[in-house]
Write the structure tokens for this entry.
Amino acid sequence: MVTCATSNGAKTDFQPFPRTGRLKKALDLNLPTLRKRLTRETGDVHPYVVATIHYENDRFSQTGSGPNFQGGFITLCTCKHRMRSSHTSDEWPGRWVAGFTGVGAVDRGNYLVYLMKVGEAFASHLDLWSSAKLPWKTKRAKAAHLRRLGDMFQPRSPASNPYDYRSYVAPRSDHSHFHNGQWHKDIDYGSTRPAALLVGDPEFSYLWDRPLLRLPDQLSRNPSGRSIHELLEQLEFMNS
């Protein structure tokens, strides 16, 4: 597998889970704690299987670019284009996204890997990169031209068309979406509605690097919508 560089120069085949900051503090919460923190929260949740999550040595590893949990924010700006285009960028904030392992990654269950409340959503990578709401260090940690598993694309100057891949700096040649121009789809999904670029509210962003929370029934390929509280009630805590 192609390697990528972490912020300290070490080489790894996957995205490292946060070791500092707010996301580290929100890592591996048990179910009672999670339910308590979200008691007053509302909104629909979009659950799905993250096909690039693997499990070995008792830990999950994310070998894809989306979701990306570098730079202190969880973002979903590559992959799941159809799901992200189900709402406009104005409609996404306040909704939730939940990413699970596929069946067989650990056992026959779907285990929760990340849960985020969408705090901001953007219609294009130009809008996302230009936003002052994300620190520069976050953009560098997620930049596809710097990180093999980055999920943000830096606009060229000037960027005349936000949905033309030529308006952006190309990702590094070993990027996970570089092959056959797959990253072009990340710039323009090609549907009548852009695939919104989702940024998790850091106050309500959670990660699990081991199998702690599981759905009792297998997640369907196109899971129906449910509320955040319905999801929390369905989860099981695997205290192992």
